[in-house]
Amino acid sequence: MDDPLAKLDHYIETLGPIADALEQQVGPCPGTRPALIAWLMEWKGSHPAHSKIEGDPPCLPASLKAAYRQWAKLEASE
User: Structurally, how many domains does the chain consist of?
Assistant: First the structure.
């Protein structure tokens, strides 16, 4: 897969199940789905140790759940 747009599209698709798991395990996203995906991209970029979140449903690290709770509170207050 050499096409940068195809790579980005694939990466975004891999974030979908993680976003779904966050909403199921922690709580609904107070913002839009694209905002949640963008936040996940940023979080994963700053936490390279958690670059491989896998499983069905994905096994979410406690640090991701805590960061999502904090982000969701900020999103809800805006």
Answer: 1
pTM of the model: 0.84
Tokens 């670059």 label which residue? 51
Closest CA to 12 of 38, 35, 46: 38
Residue type, 59: C
Measured from the Cβ of residue 17, the count of other Cβ atoms closer than 10 Å reads 15
The residue segments making up the domain with residue 73 are 4-77
Q: Which region among 18-27, 36-45, 52-61 has the lowest average model confidence (pLDDT)?
A: 52-61
Any bridge partners for residue 63, and if so which?
A: none
